[in-house]
Amino acid sequence: MATDHEGITQAPGALPIVGHLIPLLRDPLRFLKTLSAHGDLVQIRLGPQKAVVVCRPELVQQVLLHDRIYDKGGPIIERIGNALGNGLASCPHSAHRRQRRSLQPAFSRACLREYAAIMTEQIDTLTINWSDGRTVDVAEKMYTFASDTIARTLFTAPSAAPAIDTVKECLPDIFRGIYQQAVLPPSVNRLPLPSNVRYKRARGRAWAEVSKTISLYRQDDETHGDVLSMLLKTRDDEGEALGDAEIHAQIMTLLVAGIESTAVALTWAMHLLCQYPDVQERLRTETAEVLGTRTATWDDLPRLDLARRAITETLRLYPPGWILTRTTATEARLADVVIPPETTLIYSPYLIHHDARFNPRPDFFDPDRWLPEQQHVRGAFIPFGGGARKCIGDNYAMTLATLALSSIVTRWRFSSADEQPPHIEPRMTLTPHGVQVRAECLQGAPG
């Protein structure tokens, strides 16, 4: 097997000019799962560009923990920055500390408790139009639920409604465009192709509406008790207020990433519980004891252990951020291999999560693998990243998903309405299509 640098293996199957673009566009998940058989560091080609895929959890941990050396960068991070602005998800190491400190208060435990009250209210509306024995398009319902819930956390002023509606409408094209533009050569992205036009139009509309909302908040000078109000009043270590561009980037990041990842996780969780009805019944037993038929609240979380483990296992099987990039700021060393500066590194939570060496029976849905007594390989579960750049909204997402899934299961029994497995569209998240479930209202439950 050929190598460019000693210890870095070239992935087989590269075609002239396009490299590995075809499998990355047609079936990237299958392609990624083949790479670890060729080595711990495997080079692939994205057209004329080269990137090194990191295939072992301890090596990925080095990348995540040393973000000064392995800085945010590479084609995927660059496209996220282009789509959302230079916010927490894409900013370089030099800007990260300031940005993290400005947002951290919004994700304190006290704030999470307040957000949970909003979550409970929104869960009450989630299944209001479900009918006993009818089929539910889960992806559509979860997308609307996540959008409305997260938007109410970020914005409470009526003036923000147009921005919320526009971002919800534009989000699918934005996320589809981020992945396509990250994989395809820049020359292709500049062409007036329909996919490029849709992405740029969606991005432009979302940006414009969020910018308008920020201006309206500044004009009314009221404190609405939401994240945007908090950011407008935040001061950095030098006492300076955050500029509109920085606030815009943070709001876009939280809104877009939060909606998509939460909706996708809940959709996959519903699908998996249909495939594993024994787990669904165990979960129903737990929720019946804790909730009866009422909606879950913040105070119930410590007793919803199986629900949390089911969400955790869903994130292992279908991590929302399934492929990400970094760039070496200086010469680095991984597995005794010298990595030159400006090298693009790829790490894939999906690849690591599905490697049987680190997660036994990787394709089997088993929430009990997350019981406290179970042993785990360090770094073999990274749905929220790690190190200083770990997702700031991880506890928010887990809280929302756990409360929602518990409340649904205690009121409804569901089964798959389609024998065909969902189609997975790899964009910036592993988006499922065709998750149709038949819902049965349980006796005594509202609905």
Secondary structure elements and pairings:
Elements: E1 9-10, H1 21-26, H2 28-35, E2 41-46, E3 49-54, H3 57-65, E4 70-72, H4 75-84, H5 93-103, H6 109-126, E5 135-137, H7 138-154, H8 161-183, H9 186-189, H10 194-220, H11 227-233, H12 244-275, H13 277-291, H14 305-317, E6 324-328, E7 332-334, E8 337-339, E9 344-347, H15 349-353, H16 394-411, E10 412-416, E11 423-426, E12 430-433, E13 436-441
Parallel strand pairs: 1-2, 3-9
Antiparallel strand pairs: 2-3, 4-6, 5-13, 6-9, 7-8, 10-13, 11-12
Helix pairs in contact: 4-8, 6-7, 6-16, 7-12, 8-10, 10-12, 12-14, 12-16, 13-16, 14-16
Q: Count the helices. How many?
A: 16
CATH secondary-structure class = Mainly Alpha
State the shape. Answer: globular
Which structural class is indicated by helix and strand composition? alpha+beta
Q: How are the strands of the biggest sheet laid out side by side? A: 1-2-3-9-6-4
Tell me the series of helices and strands, N- to C-terminal.
EHHEEHEHHHEHHHHHHHHEEEEHHEEEE
Binned strand content: 5-15%
CATH superfamily: Cytochrome P450
Residue windows where pLDDT falls under 50 for at least 5 positions: none
Q: Which whole number gives the mean pLDDT? A: 90
Q: Rg, please?
A: 22 Å
Number of folding domains? 1
Which fold name fills CATH's third level, the topology?
Cytochrome p450
Looking at the overall shape, the CATH architecture is Orthogonal Bundle
Helix content: 40-55%
- Total E-strand runs: 13
Instruction: State the separation between the terminal residues, measured CA to CA.
Output: 60 Å
Q: What profile does the largest beta sheet have?
A: 6 strands, mixed
